[in-house]
């Protein structure tokens, strides 16, 4: 099990989202409980890009049944979901 | 205007930066699929077709616009791979007459069943006008396509998926060019779970503005369809050699003819000129820039040709036609 400080996982996700979806636009910050889709930061293609990034970054597999907003739609949901997979 | 020295993205493209050689960060971030990757996908694709072929009344439902890329893809699936094709077309009220001739002629040539679906024009007109007036999709979505095109393709994808599920067709094919969609999505299982995200990002913003469009999108009830009925999306042009000139030459041999009344970036739709014009006016970059940059990066189009495509002004008469038809004041 890879153990890194929780804030670092959150930082990694935020950095990826900022670099790929926010950079060069008017919105610059993401609140940890903000819905990434409802706030139009990310679209369904972006969810797939995020999933591929996380799988590669942490050498994990995200199964089809795990592709749900409760796991992926906010920074807090994402860090909690990854913690459940041993990424802390 | 400054452009990447390697692709066609301009300084106006969101998130862009240039290195000391003038090459943009999108070019340097490894977006091009190498030859080995394409071979890997081709093998997986052919194995998939062997598994799915001949199991039902149709092997594949083809999102068929009558344009060059979807025509080429349909012929590939029908003739090279001997699949039973249901060619599905959305008549959004802006099909070029030549595109309609191409659709009926080329589906005959392919031996494909042709299904044309036409929602009432009043509903499409209203949806397109609202998409023209306000951008209600994610900014990242609008990097890849205009609001008007996103609205139309949202309807296409949803209706085709629903048709595939209802008719138990195992494959859904798109004619996306290598620049339109990455190779990583070229063979992708659809699922109710992913559809939830698509509904949130495309369906819901559109229905807020135009509730009458609801019947064209998957409902919560549709999402309960049995897992085995959800098809696999394929877009084979991501891993076949792609050359626009060769594609047009090949399909012209079968009798396909390029429409003369569409925008230079479309071979089927009469609304494209307005869609492109509005997008450029709002955002400062061409909505096809991302796609064309991808095609240039893949080596399938010279950069100069790509620059010409995205800097060419739309025909004012075509822009005006589209605006008048949807009731949008320019």
Note the main attributes of this structure.
heterodimer; A: 88 residues; mainly alpha; 4 helices; B: 330 residues; alpha/beta; 13 helices; 48% helix
| General shape of chain A | globular
Low-confidence stretches of chain A: none
Q: Could you report the average pLDDT of chain B, rounded to the nearest whole number?
A: 95
Distance between the termini of chain A: 9 Å
If strands are numbered along the chain, what order do they take across the biggest sheet of chain B? 3-2-1-4-6-5
DSSP strand tally of chain A: 0
Helix and strand string of chain A, N-terminal first? HHHH
**Helix-strand makeup class of chain B:** alpha/beta
Write the layout of secondary structure elements.
The complex is a heterodimer of chains A (88) and B (330).
Chain A: H1 6-22, H2 44-58, H3 69-72, H4 75-84
Chain B: H1 25-28, H2 35-52, E1 60-63, H3 68-80, E2 85-90, H4 97-110, E3 113-117, H5 121-133, H6 139-144, H7 147-167, E4 171-173, E5 187-189, H8 192-209, E6 232-234, H9 244-253, H10 272-283, H11 289-297, H12 303-311, H13 316-326
Helix pairs in contact in B: 3-4, 3-9, 5-7, 10-13, 11-12
Explain what you see.
- The complex is a heterodimer of chains A (88) and B (330).
- Chain A is mostly helical.
- Helices cover 52% and strands 0% of the residues of chain A.
- In chain A, helix 1 packs across helix 2.
- The longest helix of chain A is centred in the N-terminal third of the chain and has 17 residues, at 6-22.
- Chain A is globular.
- The model of chain A has no long low-confidence stretch (mean pLDDT 88).
- With 330 residues, chain B is an alpha/beta fold.
- Helix content of chain B is 48%, strand content 7%.
- Chain B has 13 helices and six strands.
- Chain B has helices at 25-28, 35-52, 68-80, 97-110, 121-133, 139-144, 147-167, 192-209, 244-253, 272-283, 289-297, 303-311, 316-326; strands at residues 60-63, 85-90, 113-117, 171-173, 187-189, 232-234.
- In chain B, strands 3-2-1-4-6-5 form a six-stranded mixed sheet, sandwiched between helices.
- In chain B, helix 3 crosses helix 9, helix 5 (121-133) packs across helix 7 and helix 10 (272-283) packs across helix 13.
- Chain B is globular.
- The model of chain B has no long low-confidence stretch (mean pLDDT 95).
- Chains A and B meet through helix 1 and helix 2 of A and helix 6 and helix 8 of B.
